[in-house]
Amino acid sequence: MSTFHLEKLVRENVARLKPYSSARDEFKDFHQDMVFLDANENPYNNGVNRYPDPQQITLKQHLSTVKRVPVDQILLGNGSDEVLDLLFRAFSEPKTDNVITLPPTYGMYSVLAATNDIANREVMLTKEFQPDVHAVLEQVDHQTKMIFLCSPNNPTANSFEAESIEKLLRSFRGLIIVDEAYIDFAEGESWSTRLQEYPNLVIIQTLSKAYGLAGIRLGICYASAEIIAILNKIKPPYNVNELTQKRALERVLDAEKVETEINFILKERDTLSKVLLQVDFVQHVFPSEANFILARVDNANKRYDQLIQKGIVVRNRSTQALCENTLRFTVGTPDENKKLIAALNELD
Ligand SMILES: *Cc1c(COP(=O)(O)O)cnc(C)c1O
């Protein structure tokens, strides 16, 4: 692997800055029965009158057990969107640096690049929706700080070949961000098992999809302890609120229920893939490793509008590269999927 120097990637002001030290950072021993008069809180207990744990230790400890990643290699954020934004702010210099993204993919990478004034070099996926590793590496220069890989990819629903990700991890001196929002629906295992091998590997997960907690906003980042320490320096002190920490913990402790739901969704996904293929105007159903299905239809705009008329909202992905005339269907409950299929079969 080409040599990796983390210190060369950190934005200069971030390397220099001294982080805000909150009351809860300065005194951490929550277990003792102490009188807390240090944070200007309202003393009357209503369950959330105290500031939340800025390091979310209890939640991280449980995640650490479930995901088998040490606590000091975990950072939590207000959704993965916050985690992604922290990565931009820590590791790229506005107006100077660039990142590489692989369309068609998740829209937030380019939005965050734009808000942070970082150039986004787009290298199209191949026709099989796989990274064109050679073309990606050709776009790399000294100012390239991060490459974003979404696997399983949104909206194409496939996972990227491990050899391609590995080749990029070995060849690139910057950070490889693997967004695993849909990993719990995929056959392959998480790249989190490879963190010790690759100091430039950053993995993003979320409780928004398989864990069914989109409403509480909890994003997860796994990386080396050094990378996590830098992100910790710039994260807002109380970025994960108390209610979110509580609900997330309950859910992480209820692994069985999560697994049951995932299995229901996987079963429905396979059924839905098959029946979609029998719909008249559906031309192709792409294989899925996620909780949604991308399908090519005769006329996506027309079919999208017709479905809206019938009260069913899907995602029209036609404007995305390589996705002409495609619709993206999230796998719903058996009842919702039946309604979808019935509606599709009624369209003319
Ligand atoms: C849904 C999704 C996310 C989740 O974002 P949150 O902010 O955690 O809800 C992240 N990445 C991809 C590719 C997604 O599709």
Secondary structure layout:
Layout: H1 12-16, H2 23-26, H3 57-67, E1 74-77, H4 79-91, E2 98-101, H5 108-115, E3 119-122, H6 133-139, E4 144-150, H7 162-171, E5 175-179, E6 201-206, E7 219-222, H8 225-234, H9 242-253, H10 255-277, E8 282-285, E9 292-297, H11 300-309, E10 315-316, E11 326-330, H12 334-346
The chain binds pyridoxal-5'-phosphate.
Give a quick precis of the structure.
The protein has 348 residues and is α/β, with parallel strands linked by helices. 36% of the residues lie in helices and 15% in strands. The longest helix is centred in the last third of the chain and has 23 residues, at 255-277.
Describe this structure in words.
- By secondary structure, this protein is of the alpha/beta class.
- The chain has two domains: about 5-255, Aspartate Aminotransferase, domain 2; about 255-345, Aspartate Aminotransferase, domain 1 (Alpha-Beta Complex).
- About 35% of the residues lie in helices and about 15% in strands.
- The protein is built from twelve helices and eleven strands.
- The protein has helices at about 10-15, 25, 55-65, 80-90, 110-115, 135-140, 160-170, 225-235, 240-255, 255-275, 300-310, 335-345, and strands spanning about 75, 100, 120, 145-150, 175-180, 200-205, 220, 280-285, 290-295, 315, 325-330.
- A hairpin with a 6-residue loop joins strand 8 (about 280-285) and strand 9 (about 290-295).
- The protein is globular.
- The N and C termini lie far apart (about 55 Å).
- The relative contact order is 0.13.
- The model has no long low-confidence stretch (mean pLDDT about 95).
- The chain binds pyridoxal-5'-phosphate.
- Pyridoxal-5'-phosphate (PLP) binds near residues 80 and 150.
